[in-house]
Amino acid sequence: MKPTTLNIASLASFFLLFALFLITCKENPKTPVVTAPDANASISPAPFPTNIVPGFKFPEDTATIINGWLGGYTAQYFDTVSIYKHAWGIWAGLTASSGQKWNGQDLLVYETWPGISEIQDMVRAGKTDCPTRTGSVKLSKPRQFDHARALLVGTPKPGDAVDDTPNFWVTVSYDPTAACHATKYQLLDSAVIAGKIKPGGIGAIPSFPRTAITTKPSYFVGKATDSLIMIPVWPGPTNPARNYPTSTWKTHVYIDTKNQQPAGKVIVPTTTANPTPQEISAATCNLSDFIYFKLDAAAANYLNIEDATQGIKASAGDLAILVAMHVTTKEISNWTWQTFFWAPDPKNPLFPSNSVAASLRPSQLQGAASHYAVSTAYAMVRPNQPIVGGTNKGVTPVIGYNPFLEPGLGQLNGPLPNFPNKLSPAIQWGMQSNCMSCHALASYPGNPPYTADQYISMDDPIFKGAVQLDFAWSIQGNIIPVNTSTQPTTKK
Question: 187: which DSSP letter?
Fold first, then answer.
């Protein structure tokens, strides 16, 4: 399905109404833009703050999570209230102000952390000291979508004021303790990883520290010069489950780049291919409802290199709009997994979130950060299973995924030579996935499979002769070959 295209009459009528609205409203003041720093200037990685939400503890005791919230290895029902509260505490820390600026913009804590490309560059150079972020964020195509664009084809017509061709991008960042661990042990060096192979056995990289956090933000990039930017929003899962990439969604919102929409407006996404001006107006929200940043010249150039075959050029000043973020913490051996995604109605988000999770959002989360929903996956199945020696019998699936990524993965256990699902052959689609199950398969060498939700023992025969990468697909996708050029190539 192609994105919504407005016919000429509807477009003219809409912008007449929109222009009148702009005249009667005063633009919200923005932080003054200051001169951009040197493109090679370093950004100091901010430590993860733990004092934003009262009662939040990080890192939480492993025993509290395993034996308390997950009920050991026998509970059919988890303490989801504690799990959701903990996930929200993590989100509050990530989205807190770092007190730093880049390109005239305030940086959130997670925006100061080194990206996987910067870690890769240090490992390539043999450096083992702790990395910093240099310059702007480097966005790339999701690794899941190497085979196709995630959304939208075509180029805006001259004079169009509605940007209906934003591009979908991701990045991966490590908190300071995780980044230092990756460079200290040279975890992206193929020679180092290959040295851990145990013929006939299972190798492993050194485990990340308990304070480690990794993030995978997902962005749409659109033009700030347009009055509106149209993006898809999650319509909820299909029944029955099927392949459901972003390009097939019929629900869209329109982002007002001038922030002229009234506070507290109820946003009603469009659901038709040719919405009326009134429907578009109801679906229009403020840019300030999203976490976002402006690309500088270096970031735009990086995107253009990544997207060289698509014919859509990014420019300095374009807007990278956060729609979702995977977040993992090493508080337990299998990591905790939470994903956050933008919701038109954050009080009543659609599955894989729910209204209970939304009701536990702390009051300390304000502004754009409060417009996101949460989904968690602190176990693969219920009851929780041990790291090795567990079972797929007599258990129920725990579903948790990023709606902007996993539903487009398609059929994971069918005609593809992927890891067979031992829980149920019917659990095979991206929207039936669990972050922990899928990331458990991250290993080297070869091309490890993706999987929908099931329990995976870390001594499974699939790992024989391979090196387990501590659940980090970001390592598997960015390992530097023995013979490589000096130009880094990152996969997310």
Answer: T
Contact 412, 439 (CB under 8 A): no
Coil, helix or strand at residue 195: coil
| pTM for the whole structure | 0.87
| Residue in 402, 351, 349 with CA at minimum distance from that of residue 373 | 349
Q: For residue 220, give the amino acid letter.
A: F
Model pLDDT for residues 280-305, shown as the tens digit of each residue = 999 999 999 999 999 999 899 988 88
DSSP 343-409: -SSTTSPPTTS-HHHHHT--TT--GGGGGEEEEE-SSSEES---SSS--STT-EE--B--TTTGGGG
Tokens of 48: 């993860």
Which residues have CB under 8 Å from 446's CB, separation 6+? 466
Residue 59, preceding bond cis, omega within 30 degrees? yes
Largest CA distance in the chain: 73
Domain boundaries, the chain: 8-183+209-331+341-377
From CA 137, how far away is CA 140, in angstroms rounded? 10
Indicate if the alpha-carbon torsion angle 117, 173, 404, 300 is positive or negative.
Answer: negative
